[in-house]
Amino acid sequence: MLLNLEGFQWATGLDLHMGHCHVTLDPGSKQLCDIVLTFGKHEHKAILMGLYNNTNIFQEEMSELIDGLAFV
């Protein structure tokens, strides 16, 4: 793949492993992702692993991020 980048001065790659953990939940969704513990409840601030649509949401976020960038 790098051999096909003739003429470019810079090339980079992104490590997106566990990237969905950095996508924040909206306030309405935070209430749905509460965990009840013996000392109270814990409210998650980011998308949890194992939620049904977390890969779709992460893909939408990444698509918005790179939209309009050339050669991506």
Spatial strand sequence of the major β-sheet:
1-2
**Count of individual domains:** 1
User: What percent of residues are in strands?
Assistant: 5-15%
Question: How much is the radius of gyration in Å?
Answer: 18 Å
- What overall geometry do the principal axes of the alpha carbons give? elongated
Query: H/E series, N to C?
Result: HEEH
Characterize the main sheet.
2 strands, antiparallel
Give the terminus-to-terminus CA distance: 13 Å
Low-confidence stretches: none
Total beta strands = 2
Give the mean pLDDT: 83
> How much helix is in the residues?
25-40%
Please tally the helical runs, counting DSSP H or I stretches of 4 or more residues: 2
**Coarse structural class:** alpha+beta
Explained architecture:
By secondary structure, the chain is an alpha+beta fold. The protein has one domain (21-72). It has helices at 27-32, 54-66, and strands spanning 34-37, 40-43. A two-stranded antiparallel ribbon has the order 1-2. Strand 1 and strand 2 (40-43) form a beta hairpin. The longest helix has 13 residues, at 54-66. The mean pLDDT is 83.
Fill in the keyword field for this structure.
two-stranded antiparallel sheet, alpha+beta, elongated, 26% helix, 2 helices, single chain
Q: What is this structure, in a nutshell?
A:
With about 70 residues, this protein is of the alpha+beta class. Helices cover about 25% and strands about 10% of the residues. It has helices at about 25-30, 55-65; strands spanning about 35, 40-45.
